[in-house]
Known about the structure:
Blueprint: H1 3-8, E1 45-47, E2 51-53, H2 60-68, E3 72-74, E4 81-83, E5 96-98, H3 109-123, E6 132-137, H4 140-157, E7 165-171, H5 177-190, H6 196-205, H7 216-228, H8 246-256, H9 268-276, H10 279-284, H11 315-323, E8 327-333, H12 341-354, E9 359-368, E10 371-379, E11 383-388, H13 395-398, H14 400-412
Parallel strand pairs: 2-6, 6-7, 7-8, 8-11
Antiparallel strand pairs: 1-5, 3-4, 9-10, 10-11
Helix pairs in contact: 2-9, 3-4, 4-11, 5-12, 6-7, 11-12
Subcellular location: Secreted
GO molecular function: serine-type carboxypeptidase activity
Organism: Brassica oleracea (Wild cabbage)
Amino acid sequence: MARESSVARVSEEDLVVRLPGQPKVLFGLMEVFMFLLALVLSCSFCYEIEVDLAGPGCSSVGGGAFTELGPFYPTGDGHGLRINSMSWNKASNLLFVDSPAGVGWDETTASDMLVFLLRWFNKFPELKARHLFLTGESYAGHYIPQLADAIHSYNRQSSGFKINVKGIAIGNPLLKLDTDTSASYDFLWYHGIISDERRHAIIRQCDFTSLPNISKECIEALTEVSLANMYVNVYDVLLDACFPSIIEQELRLKKMATQMSMGVDVCMKHERQLYFNLPAVQHALHANRTSLPYQWSMCSTLVNYSGIDGNINMLPILKRIIQNKTYVWISSGDQDSVVTLLGSRTLVRELAHDLNFSTTLPYGPWFHKNQVGGWVTEYGKILTFATVRGAAQMVPYAQPSRALHIFSSFVRGRRLPNSTHYSPDE
């Protein structure tokens, strides 16, 4: 990026120079902080680093940027930031976008995002020739394909600039509601979280092909399952849950005020919420200029969503994307019980069959740092499915090194390594 020319086009009210409690960094701030709040009406936060989107009602900036794959994590007391050594900006420029305002999905999200990208490229024309990769997780299984499809439609009609979308990568994606929902309850049973009786009740009472219209008996069966796993982190069934009582929180703040917890910080979401509600942080981000009467939270309950979009089968859209020569990578953290590898693997295989693709890489382990990172298969040299061993739905949060390796391989157009050989640039 031509940093000086880019800075010259960014007004003071757009540019974030530094965040409160931010540690010293080796990269230039222009490479990381640039919020362009006025570019599109439905964009509540626009964070310059390629494109990442979060699930309905939940924030990409709060989740993706500050909990998973951005350059900083919140400190234990929620009043500062610490460096994420596995940030994805090691492999690419990144752009996090929350859309629409309030975040989530609505029927105009793909067209709004397309308008945003076109305005983005107009403001930074030096980026027009670069490859664009779209990534996201969970409900992004809907709006990443929808956005890619909208981009291809625009490119077909444009006689001038065409967006150079190269590939899409989606983690634990919701692709087909009935398949993914059924697989979720199978996963809970396979992991011993629900009993044989509860699983059999779901099989007898629930027809997931009719979602969201399900019987009273099915609702009762699913309610019993919800009670059975209420103390489990459903996004990572092996990870401890966070129960921050007042006393427990006070102890945590004393112990973690300046240091990182060992392993995965299961309470990072609370630290993140503390940080984003600091007045100095909101001022630095040019956010909450209207002094809203409620606090920022990772997931908003202020936007109402229709359940209709959740029933859309994404496989036909993914088929069109692949037919436009755009690479598709689907990955699954293997400890997620919400959108499981069982459903995703089944649907990717179904998509490959519909495209008449042969298997170009047989299913087998991939390696990172001399250990099995997960398992991977490829169809037609353009469609990849990979699991990430020991990962939650939020893969960069639970397995940051393996997540960065997958992302780096994706943007470089490389297959994941099928041997323990490790090179320094992995």
